[in-house]
Amino acid sequence: MINTNRTALITGASSGIGTVYAKTLAKEGWGLIVVGRRNERLTKLKQEIQLHHKVNIQILVADLSVNEDLEHLLSVIDHSPGIELLINNAGFGSSGDYFKSKYSIQQQMLDVHITACTRIVHHAVPKMIKRGKGAIINVASLSAFFPAPNSYFYCSTKAFMVTFSECMHIDLKSHNIKVQALCPGFTHTEFHSRQGIVHSGNYLQLKLLWKSPQQVVNKSLKALRKSKVICIPGLLNRIIYLFSKVIPNSIYYKLAAHNSDMFLHSKK
Ligand SMILES: NC(=O)c1ccc[n+]([C@@H]2O[C@H](COP(=O)([O-])OP(=O)(O)OC[C@H]3O[C@@H](n4cnc5c(N)ncnc54)[C@H](OP(=O)(O)O)[C@@H]3O)[C@@H](O)[C@H]2O)c1
User: Fold this and answer.
1) Which of these ranges, 118-127, 205-214, 237-246, has the smallest mean pLDDT?
2) CDD domains per the record (predicted)?
C-alpha cells in the first residue's frame, strides 16, 4: 500500500510519455501508481526507478477497455486517499479506412480515451476536493484541433478530452484543483510504430515537429505549475494550433484532404 501523501496515478505508464512522467515525478519524490497492460514493462520501470529513488510504486496491470479491470482500478483509487495528481495518459491511435476497419477497435478507443478517463476522474476528484488540492492531466493531442481523414475516433475523442478538461477547470479552480489538457504533436514513442507507421520528412521538419517524450513531460509539468489549461509543447505546434483558430473551415477541409499524411508513411 502506498503511504506517501503525494501520490500520482499514471495510466499508460508502461511506455512513452507515461514512462517519462513516472521517472520525472519519482525524481521529485512522488509516490506512484502505474497502470498499463504490460506487467513486465511496469515491473522493469519500478525496478529502474527504485534503484535511484526511495519512493513507493504500486503496479496495476489493467486493460482500461475492460470493465472489470477499470472497476478494479477504481477500487484502488477508493483505497488510496492520497492521490494528488492524476494523469490520464493511456491511449492509442488507429489508421486506415474507418468504414473498412473493425468497429471493436473504435469501441476500444472510446472505452480508453473517454470512458476510462471520465470514470477515473469521477472517482478521484471528490477526494481531491475533500483534501482541498489536486491536479489532473488529461493527455489529449494536437489532433484534437485538426479533424483528419481516417482519424474519426482519434480526433474526436481527443477533442472530447480537451473540452472535458476545460469544463472541469472552470469548476475546479475554486477547489484548488488544477486541470490540464496536454496536447502534444508528434512525439517519439511507440505510438506510431504500434500502428505500423514510420515518420518521414526532411531534417528541419523532423527537428521542428517531433519532440522527445521528456520535452513533452517537462513542458506539461512546467505548465501545470503555471496552471495553464491547454498545454501544447513546441513552438511550431503552438503556431499550427493558432493557425487552426484563424483558417476558414472550407480551406482547412481542402488542405486536410490533401496533406493528412505529410509526415507519416505507412509501412504497409
Ligand atoms: N506519440 C505521439 O506522437 C502522440 C501525440 C499526441 C498525443 N499522444 C498521446 O499520448 C498518450 C501516450 O502515448 P505515447 O505516445 O506515449 O504512446 P505509447 O508509447 O504507445 O504509450 C501508450 C500507453 O498507453 C497504454 N495503453 C494503451 N491502450 C491501453 C489499454 N487498453 N489499457 C491500458 N493501457 C493502455 C499503453 O500500455 P500497454 O500497452 O502496456 O497497455 C502505453 O503505456 C496517448 O494518449 C496518445 O494518444 C501521443
Assistant:
1) 205-214
2) SDR_c
